[in-house]
Amino acid sequence: MKTAITRATLKQIHMKLNKSSSAFTLLKQREHISAFTLIELLVVIAIIAILAALAVPALTSALAKAQMSGTMNNARQLYLAQFQMANDGTSTGDATLAWPGDMTGGPPASLAAYCDLLVSKGYLKAGDLSKLLNAPGATCTVTAGPPVVLAGTSALKVYPVKDSDPAIAIFAVSHNYVYDNAIVGTDVPYGTKGFVVMRKGGDGAVFKGGQAKDTDWPNAATFQSSVGLKTGDNEGTPTANDPANVLKLP
Fold it and tell me: Could you point out which of 35, 40, 196, 215 has its C-alpha 20 to 30 Å from the C-alpha of 202?
């Protein structure tokens, strides 16, 4: 009986020792796992930081392109109003309903006067202008009037294009673009990120900042056929700067 008790006691002691050993081993394993997880977390954070640094420029570029596409669509809406007005002027013989460069007495005196004409003749609503003339960094406030009053900076400039100009002649550009000039980084709305052009033929495009001059293209003819021809220029011989009487604000 004494031997049985001793053996049972030894067995219990052995079991307790095994449990203690297992608990100690598990504790060490947990400590090891905890340390490994911390290192792994730091590595993951470092990887995320690197990916974010690489992704931010791409996301910024994509956002700017989307914003410029919106400005191009706004320029197209302005173009459609002008196109309809010019067509009506041709069919009715009303010289006030014409392309800006063909209007009686010359182009309107200001962008506000031009917009007032589009609104007063029913081709646009004053509320439309609040959308069409604004872009990131270029805030233009519109007072319906009559007459229409503009204040601030318009996102678009309108060239005094004529009916006799070819389809590649420029109708409107974003405010930051001066024809055949390098883009200035501080100019709104897009600085050196790019610029927008809408042509008399109704086709618009978004260009990179490095495509602003004719020397950025294989030749002058390619520049004019791609970006556009300034009214008053001959094909193949672009001249720098916006045309006289360009409609802009300020």
Answer: 215
CA distance 10 to 172: 98
What angle, rounded to 10 degrees, do the helices at 111-120 and 2-92 form? 80
Whether pLDDT at 247 is above 90 = yes
DSSP sequence for 96-141: TSS-GGGSTTSS-SSHHHHHHHHHHTTSS-HHHHHHHT-BTTB-EE
Q: For residues 61 and 121, is the Cβ–Cβ distance under 8 A?
A: no
First to last CA, the chain: 111
Q: Which of 11, 64, 31 is nearest to 176 (CA)?
A: 64
Provide the whole-model pTM: 0.78
Per-residue pLDDT at 126: 93
How much is the pLDDT for 147?
96
Judge whether 134 and 155 are in contact, CB under 8 Å. Answer: yes
* Residue whose C-alpha is closest to residue 169's, from 178, 159, 184: 159
Question: H helices of the chain, where?
Answer: 2-92, 111-120, 126-132, 220-226
Is the CB of residue 144 less than 8 Å from the CB of residue 90?
no
What value does the mean pLDDT of the chain take? 88
